[in-house]
Amino acid sequence: MDDKVVVLVVDDEPKNVRLLQAMLLPVGYDILTATNGVEALESVNKTKPDLILLDIMMPKMDGYKVCEHINSDEDLKDIPIIFLTAKADVKDIVKGFDVGAVDYVTKPFKQAELVARVKTHVGFKLAKDKIIDLNRELSFANDQLQEWNVNLEGKLDARTKEIHEINKALLRKNKILECRDRISEFLISYKPYDETIHFILSELLNLMQLNNCIVYTETDNGEFKSNFGLAADNTESPFEETDLEKYPLLPGLSNDQKSALSTGKDRRIKDVNDYSKLIPLMKSDNHLGYLLLDNTANRKEINSEDVDIAVDFSNLLGLVLNDHKVRGSIENLEDTVEVFLENIQNDN
Question: For domain 6-135, which architecture applies?
Fold first, then answer.
């Protein structure tokens, strides 16, 4: 790329053009020439020189008009123009500055003066161009920096949110584990059936922030009846019979449904409504009842994470129900044996 300074010489006198070339070429400048104002404007638009030496008195268009045209163009107005004039009249000089010239040189030319003035204004022009380029680069760098900062802030926000969610999940997991430990300890103590159900439901209500938890067990005619309930606003007292009546009987299962449950094909959660879910209570292949999660009062949806927790706890409830059922069967068997023995003794 050629980095030489380009100077446009505009004068209708060929001898002046040759003289100016002879003075400036040794300095190392590239010299372009024009003999009138129209040619000058064409050359300026085409080449955008670094400086213009412009004669004032020319045919077709004088130097003032040429200077006005150049300074009215946003792309050209920063090119310095030095007037070449035989006039030393103050009014002419002032007029030259008014139309946009930066300096003037009087004829006959003195080489040292001409070269000095050209060097000075070329230096100003190149320095100004350099500042413009630096400002453009700085503006671009600032835009990039701002974009990087926005991206960095976005990444930091996303990472902070991710860490917050991880911490939240860990805290909840820890609460679940603590809750399971408490229930496991309670189960080891072999408390009465109602007391054990009460304890598990109270833990579940507190952990999941539910309104109510209801346990359904199978009746003699194969339907499922609510037989234990607990509310978040009163975990100390289980539901009375009148409260349980608000939760109607659930229909019994067909043989196909029982078969599906025993093989694990129908252990999915049942949606009662938008805020309540029904979870089967199982022990091995035995379907023992249902757990109802109810959030109807506060209209808070039960999400998949809550469902997973509830399913985990339903397994513990299944153990309790199964144990209660087995104990009941043993007691009934003992009563039957006792009656049988009494009947034998009476017969004897």
Answer: 3-Layer(aba) Sandwich (3.40)
